[in-house]
Amino acid sequence: MLSLSTSLHEVRVSRAETSGAASTTATTTAATTTATTTTATTTACVLIFGFGGSGVEDLAPQAKWYQSQNCIVVSTSPLSWPTAVREKQDAALAEELTAALAAGSGKLVLHVCSNGGFVRGASFIGTWSQGQGPFSKLPRPADCIAAMVIECAPARPMDPVTQEVLGSPGKATSQSSGVQLESSAAAELSQKVLSAEVGMFQMIIRGCVGALCMKNSIDAAEVFEGGGSLAKCLETAAGFGVLGPPAWAHVGSAAQWDYGEFEEWDMGLEKPIPRLFLYSDRDTLIHKNKVEAYARYTERYNPRAQILRALIPKASHCKLWQKEPEKCGQAVSELLKLVGIGTGTGT
């Protein structure tokens, strides 16, 4: 989960190139937006939220495949904080989505990577659906989002014994992203859940710190060898991943949705959104059992939605497209066929 991208809040827009067509690149200062323009006819817009610590270069394999389907691709990282920088990213996203939706069919495919991408996607839908800020002039997400690809995600806490997702569908979790526990054994179960989940978030945070070290030519080994106070900070931060951020982080707002709010919105849609869970049997960060548990959970709370699954063998976390691009393309192609998007080649 290391990124050498020049910016962790960059928004990159790319369009499919026609045979022999020359492309032009323009860069603006609005959250570092890079746009590649061509004359190709497009069918839809694809918005990709990467994994925590990713940059747009890490999402190039997915973007390249969608371009082969004549889609406009908007790629970015799952930035949630600092708030001021996220707002700049939102402004850039709104500007590019407005142009991309108008240039294409008006359909949007939302592709989220890892838990960071999933949660950022949910938050993004929350801001957009309430017409807040730069999204006030966009059509409603319910009228645009035609399909979803959920890659190596999500990491919604699950019962370590039953291997099923905890909580009730559509209910907001404690604080902003934690687990809602109401039984008499809540304290004991809460501790088990924390023990099972905190380790995963520690790995995520270490990956992000490692990425920043590489970007700034710092020896990550020396940083982590310090232990002591740094280890305690990482453990505390990992706990926030399960129980939600503290009040002093100023992350939450009425528009900042998480699992529960997204599920409530998802259940209420008149036309359910087809989706694909794309995951691996070698993912040591978000295990296949967790993804499969959420897929079953989705089928329970939204039985009208078409749920597809594609297991990509022997690929590590968020490296599916690098390991098996053809299999990933075939799986996503099947999803897009359901909503009339793409060339249907799967290549």
From TrEMBL:
Residues 15-34 are annotated as: Disordered. Pfam families: DUF829. It comes from Polarella glacialis (Dinoflagellate). It is found in: Nucleus outer membrane. This is Uncharacterized protein. GO terms for cellular component: nuclear outer membrane. Keywords: Membrane, Nucleus, Transmembrane, Transmembrane helix. It is a single-pass membrane protein. Belongs to the TMEM53 family. Coiled coil: none annotated. Residues 21-34 have a biased composition (Low complexity). Signal peptide: none annotated.
